[in-house]
Amino acid sequence: MTESTDWPLWEVFVRSRRGVSHTHAGSLHAPDAQMALRNARDLYTRRNEGVSLWVVPSTAITASSPDEKDSFFEPSGDKPYRHPTFYEIPEGVKHL
Amino acid sequence: MTAPTSPTSPTTTAPATAAAALALGDDALVLSHHLGEWAGHAPVLEEEVALANIALDLLGQARILLSLVGDEDELAYLREERAFRNLQLVEQPNGDFAHTIARQLYFSTYQAFLYEELARTDGPFTALAAKAVKEVAYHRDHAEQWTLRLGDGTEESHHRMQRAVDQLWRFTGEMFQPVDGAHDIDWPSLQESWHSSVTEVIRGATLTLPEGPRADAWAAGAGRQGLHTESFGRMLAEMQHLHRSHPGATW
């Protein structure tokens, strides 16, 4: 394997079957979007894992920063009332 | 052309069908082996997986086809060079990546039209062809995408892709020799479809269509008759040596 490519990085999302969301599967290098889709097909769906693929340039993704971890996520840690666990579910109620 | 007798297992396949299965099966087997040679050497990891996938599709086709003829392992590993019926195109060495892509473009386009026809007609290859059509559609797309990008890429990639389509051009005429046992194929019309498809891709890639004979007296290729080019013996030696050194070995 030669150290050659300056191809951009793409994030791959696979939908495993109809009705469920696309899930992040991994990333790969490709020269353009069409080739990225094909590489994704070869790398992430060769064992019949998917029915639909998205590829997104990694640079298009804005990620939260580890520095913001405390202000982003910690405040929700001690608020169990945000979980709908304080209600008695009446018998016979479906789809909850 | 007569089907070489398999070393063992007489089959119930009609001789003409067996002859066609051998020709098409050998095409798939030999090309599969060459594509497998890229493992560990492809320009990028993603492409290595792509080529290996294509190789495995072809190997699957080869196994089905050769098992119509006899014992698939004996056919693959114990036949001499002259008993192989593959096209000379598929036995051409990988060369650089552009060479491999040009070989893929020429062959997968041929296979796409051929299997489409075989899937349409009711015969011994209908089921195999119906499945293979989808695999081959991807192989063809892969080759076309790369031809376009290399041809219309950098000066270097354009030069290499042009060199590759030129050098392999003379092996393309042989593909349209009628294959015994594949009676329902309209070969001239297959050739016409192939030619217009390949022309469109090559022009789209800003390359020039190779000129010169594709099938003259010496360039015609006689792989279907068991005559092969120089490098094929070396490929076979590598492909067969393990089986010949350790007959009957299992994992």
TrEMBL record, chain A:
GO terms for molecular function: phenylacetyl-CoA 1,2-epoxidase activity. Its EC number is 1.14.13.149. InterPro entries: PaaB (IPR009359), PaaB_sf (IPR038693). Keywords: Oxidoreductase. Gene3D superfamilies: Phenylacetic acid degradation B (3.10.20.520). It is an enzyme of class 1 (oxidoreductase). This is 1,2-phenylacetyl-CoA epoxidase subunit B.
TrEMBL record, chain B:
It holds the Pfam family PaaA_PaaC. One of its GO terms (biological process) is phenylacetate catabolic process. Transmembrane segments: none annotated. InterPro entries: Aromatic_CoA_ox/epox, Ferritin-like, Ferritin-like_SF, PaaA_PaaC, PaaC. It comes from the Bacteria. GO terms for cellular component: cytosol. This is Phenylacetate-CoA oxygenase subunit PaaC. The gene is paaC.
